[in-house]
Amino acid sequence: LERTFSIIKPDATKRNLTGAINAKFEAAGLRIVAQKRIHLTKAQAGAFYAVHAERPFYDELCEFMASAPIVAQVLEGEGAIAKNREVMGATNPADADAGTIRAEFAQSVGENSVHGSDAPETAAEEIAYFFSGLELVG
Ligand code: GTP
Ligand code: MG
Protein backbone atom coordinates (compact mmCIF):
# COMPACT_ATOMS: atom_id res chain seq x y z
CA LEU A 1 0.00 0.00 0.00
CA GLU A 2 1.16 3.51 -0.80
CA ARG A 3 1.62 6.28 1.78
CA THR A 4 1.31 10.03 1.35
CA PHE A 5 1.80 13.04 3.56
CA SER A 6 -1.15 15.30 4.41
CA ILE A 7 -1.53 18.57 6.32
CA ILE A 8 -4.75 20.05 7.62
CA LYS A 9 -3.84 23.72 7.37
CA PRO A 10 -4.41 26.58 9.88
CA ASP A 11 -7.58 27.91 8.22
CA ALA A 12 -9.19 24.51 8.76
CA THR A 13 -7.94 23.80 12.31
CA LYS A 14 -9.13 27.28 13.35
CA ARG A 15 -12.63 26.53 12.04
CA ASN A 16 -12.73 23.13 13.81
CA LEU A 17 -12.85 21.20 10.53
CA THR A 18 -10.29 18.45 11.19
CA GLY A 19 -12.93 15.78 11.75
CA ALA A 20 -14.99 16.79 8.71
CA ILE A 21 -11.87 16.71 6.52
CA ASN A 22 -10.66 13.38 7.84
CA ALA A 23 -14.12 11.88 7.32
CA LYS A 24 -13.63 12.55 3.60
CA PHE A 25 -10.23 10.85 3.55
CA GLU A 26 -11.59 7.81 5.37
CA ALA A 27 -14.67 7.62 3.16
CA ALA A 28 -12.33 7.52 0.15
CA GLY A 29 -10.54 4.49 1.59
CA LEU A 30 -7.50 6.29 2.99
CA ARG A 31 -6.32 5.20 6.44
CA ILE A 32 -4.68 7.66 8.86
CA VAL A 33 -1.57 5.78 9.99
CA ALA A 34 0.16 8.69 11.77
CA GLN A 35 -1.14 12.01 13.06
CA LYS A 36 -0.02 14.96 15.17
CA ARG A 37 -1.19 18.47 15.91
CA ILE A 38 1.69 20.96 15.91
CA HIS A 39 2.23 24.70 15.63
CA LEU A 40 5.04 25.37 13.13
CA THR A 41 7.41 28.29 13.43
CA LYS A 42 7.71 30.43 10.30
CA ALA A 43 11.20 28.97 9.75
CA GLN A 44 9.88 25.41 9.93
CA ALA A 45 7.08 26.27 7.49
CA GLY A 46 9.68 27.88 5.22
CA ALA A 47 11.84 24.76 5.24
CA PHE A 48 8.85 22.57 4.43
CA TYR A 49 7.85 24.79 1.49
CA ALA A 50 11.46 25.53 0.37
CA VAL A 51 10.57 24.36 -3.16
CA HIS A 52 8.34 27.47 -3.43
CA ALA A 53 11.01 29.90 -2.12
CA GLU A 54 11.15 31.86 -5.38
CA ARG A 55 7.37 32.19 -5.78
CA PRO A 56 5.81 35.60 -5.08
CA PHE A 57 3.45 34.13 -2.46
CA TYR A 58 6.20 32.33 -0.46
CA ASP A 59 6.36 34.77 2.47
CA GLU A 60 2.56 34.91 2.75
CA LEU A 61 2.42 31.10 2.59
CA CYS A 62 4.96 30.71 5.42
CA GLU A 63 3.18 33.30 7.60
CA PHE A 64 -0.10 31.50 7.03
CA MET A 65 1.28 28.03 7.80
CA ALA A 66 2.71 29.36 11.09
CA SER A 67 -0.43 31.33 12.02
CA ALA A 68 -2.20 28.55 13.95
CA PRO A 69 -1.80 24.81 14.61
CA ILE A 70 -1.76 22.29 11.79
CA VAL A 71 -2.49 18.56 11.81
CA ALA A 72 0.30 16.63 10.09
CA GLN A 73 -0.66 13.13 9.05
CA VAL A 74 0.23 10.14 6.92
CA LEU A 75 -2.48 8.55 4.79
CA GLU A 76 -2.20 4.99 3.51
CA GLY A 77 -4.12 3.23 0.77
CA GLU A 78 -4.05 1.98 -2.78
CA GLY A 79 -2.76 4.83 -4.96
CA ALA A 80 -2.80 7.06 -1.87
CA ILE A 81 -0.89 9.97 -3.43
CA ALA A 82 -3.28 10.40 -6.37
CA LYS A 83 -6.36 9.53 -4.33
CA ASN A 84 -5.50 12.13 -1.70
CA ARG A 85 -5.08 14.84 -4.35
CA GLU A 86 -8.38 13.82 -5.92
CA VAL A 87 -10.20 14.13 -2.58
CA MET A 88 -8.46 17.48 -1.89
CA GLY A 89 -9.49 19.05 -5.22
CA ALA A 90 -7.73 21.79 -7.19
CA THR A 91 -5.38 24.23 -5.42
CA ASN A 92 -7.76 27.13 -6.06
CA PRO A 93 -11.17 26.30 -4.53
CA ALA A 94 -12.84 28.18 -7.40
CA ASP A 95 -11.54 25.42 -9.71
CA ALA A 96 -12.15 22.48 -7.36
CA ASP A 97 -14.71 19.82 -8.27
CA ALA A 98 -17.90 19.65 -6.19
CA GLY A 99 -17.59 17.38 -3.18
CA THR A 100 -13.83 17.85 -2.79
CA ILE A 101 -12.35 19.18 0.45
CA ARG A 102 -11.23 22.42 -1.14
CA ALA A 103 -14.58 23.00 -2.87
CA GLU A 104 -16.38 22.56 0.45
CA PHE A 105 -13.99 24.13 2.93
CA ALA A 106 -11.18 26.19 1.38
CA GLN A 107 -11.33 29.97 1.71
CA SER A 108 -8.92 31.03 -1.05
CA VAL A 109 -6.03 29.79 -3.20
CA GLY A 110 -3.71 30.39 -0.25
CA GLU A 111 -5.94 29.37 2.65
CA ASN A 112 -6.95 26.14 1.01
CA SER A 113 -7.39 23.84 4.03
CA VAL A 114 -5.13 20.93 3.05
CA HIS A 115 -1.75 19.97 1.66
CA GLY A 116 -0.98 16.66 -0.06
CA SER A 117 2.28 15.30 -1.46
CA ASP A 118 2.48 15.39 -5.25
CA ALA A 119 4.80 12.41 -6.01
CA PRO A 120 6.42 9.36 -4.36
CA GLU A 121 9.73 11.19 -3.76
CA THR A 122 8.11 14.22 -2.12
CA ALA A 123 5.81 11.95 -0.08
CA ALA A 124 8.82 10.10 1.35
CA GLU A 125 10.67 13.36 2.10
CA GLU A 126 7.68 15.06 3.68
CA ILE A 127 6.79 12.05 5.85
CA ALA A 128 10.40 11.89 7.08
CA TYR A 129 10.38 15.65 7.85
CA PHE A 130 7.50 15.24 10.31
CA PHE A 131 7.53 11.63 11.53
CA SER A 132 9.95 8.96 12.70
CA GLY A 133 9.45 5.37 11.58
CA LEU A 134 8.18 4.51 15.06
CA GLU A 135 5.26 6.91 14.61
CA LEU A 136 3.92 5.20 11.49
CA VAL A 137 1.39 2.60 12.57
CA GLY A 138 -0.27 0.88 9.64
P1 GTP B 1 -0.09 21.81 -1.55
O1 GTP B 1 -0.74 20.48 -1.38
O2 GTP B 1 -0.28 22.71 -0.36
O3 GTP B 1 1.35 21.72 -1.99
O4 GTP B 1 -0.93 22.50 -2.71
P2 GTP B 1 -0.85 22.29 -4.26
O5 GTP B 1 0.14 21.23 -4.62
O6 GTP B 1 -2.25 22.13 -4.74
O7 GTP B 1 -0.31 23.70 -4.73
P3 GTP B 1 1.20 24.22 -4.94
O8 GTP B 1 2.17 23.18 -4.53
O9 GTP B 1 1.28 24.80 -6.30
O10 GTP B 1 1.25 25.44 -3.91
C1 GTP B 1 1.52 25.20 -2.54
C2 GTP B 1 0.61 26.05 -1.71
O11 GTP B 1 0.97 27.42 -1.90
C3 GTP B 1 -0.87 26.00 -2.07
O12 GTP B 1 -1.55 24.93 -1.49
C4 GTP B 1 -1.37 27.31 -1.51
O13 GTP B 1 -1.58 27.23 -0.10
C5 GTP B 1 -0.19 28.23 -1.77
N1 GTP B 1 -0.39 28.96 -3.01
C6 GTP B 1 -0.33 28.49 -4.29
N2 GTP B 1 -0.59 29.46 -5.18
C7 GTP B 1 -0.82 30.59 -4.44
C8 GTP B 1 -1.14 31.93 -4.76
O14 GTP B 1 -1.27 32.31 -5.93
N3 GTP B 1 -1.30 32.80 -3.72
C9 GTP B 1 -1.15 32.41 -2.40
N4 GTP B 1 -1.31 33.31 -1.42
N5 GTP B 1 -0.85 31.15 -2.07
C10 GTP B 1 -0.70 30.26 -3.06
MG1 MG C 1 2.15 21.17 -3.86
From TrEMBL:
<dbReference type="GO" id="GO:0046872">
    <property type="term" value="F:metal ion binding"/>
</dbReference>
<dbReference type="GO" id="GO:0006241">
    <property type="term" value="P:CTP biosynthetic process"/>
</dbReference>
<keyword id="KW-0808">Transferase</keyword>
<dbReference type="GO" id="GO:0004550">
    <property type="term" value="F:nucleoside diphosphate kinase activity"/>
</dbReference>
<feature type="binding site">
    <location>
        <position position="57"/>
    </location>
    <ligand>
        <name>ATP</name>
    </ligand>
</feature>
<dbReference type="GO" id="GO:0005737">
    <property type="term" value="C:cytoplasm"/>
</dbReference>
<dbReference type="InterPro" id="IPR023005">
    <property type="entry name" value="Nucleoside_diP_kinase_AS"/>
</dbReference>
<comment type="similarity">
    <text>Belongs to the NDK family.</text>
</comment>
<protein>
    <recommendedName>
        <fullName>Nucleoside diphosphate kinase</fullName>
        <ecNumber>2.7.4.6</ecNumber>
    </recommendedName>
</protein>
<keyword id="KW-0546">Nucleotide metabolism</keyword>
<keyword id="KW-0963">Cytoplasm</keyword>
<dbReference type="GO" id="GO:0006183">
    <property type="term" value="P:GTP biosynthetic process"/>
</dbReference>
<comment type="function">
    <text>Major role in the synthesis of nucleoside triphosphates other than ATP. The ATP gamma phosphate is transferred to the NDP beta phosphate via a ping-pong mechanism, using a phosphorylated active-site intermediate.</text>
</comment>
<feature type="binding site">
    <location>
        <position position="85"/>
    </location>
    <ligand>
        <name>ATP</name>
    </ligand>
</feature>
<feature type="binding site">
    <location>
        <position position="9"/>
    </location>
    <ligand>
        <name>ATP</name>
    </ligand>
</feature>
<feature type="binding site">
    <location>
        <position position="112"/>
    </location>
    <ligand>
        <name>ATP</name>
    </ligand>
</feature>
<dbReference type="InterPro" id="IPR001564">
    <property type="entry name" value="Nucleoside_diP_kinase"/>
</dbReference>
<comment type="subunit">
    <text>Homotetramer.</text>
</comment>
<feature type="active site" description="Pros-phosphohistidine intermediate">
    <location>
        <position position="115"/>
    </location>
</feature>
<dbReference type="GO" id="GO:0006228">
    <property type="term" value="P:UTP biosynthetic process"/>
</dbReference>
<dbReference type="InterPro" id="IPR034907">
    <property type="entry name" value="NDK-like_dom"/>
</dbReference>
<keyword id="KW-0547">Nucleotide-binding</keyword>
<keyword id="KW-0479">Metal-binding</keyword>
<dbReference type="InterPro" id="IPR036850">
    <property type="entry name" value="NDK-like_dom_sf"/>
</dbReference>
<keyword id="KW-0418">Kinase</keyword>
<feature type="binding site">
    <location>
        <position position="91"/>
    </location>
    <ligand>
        <name>ATP</name>
    </ligand>
</feature>
<keyword id="KW-0460">Magnesium</keyword>
<feature type="binding site">
    <location>
        <position position="102"/>
    </location>
    <ligand>
        <name>ATP</name>
    </ligand>
</feature>
<feature type="domain" description="Nucleoside diphosphate kinase-like">
    <location>
        <begin position="1"/>
        <end position="138"/>
    </location>
</feature>
<dbReference type="Pfam" id="PF00334">
    <property type="entry name" value="NDK"/>
</dbReference>
<keyword id="KW-0597">Phosphoprotein</keyword>
<keyword id="KW-0067">ATP-binding</keyword>
<dbReference type="GO" id="GO:0005524">
    <property type="term" value="F:ATP binding"/>
</dbReference>
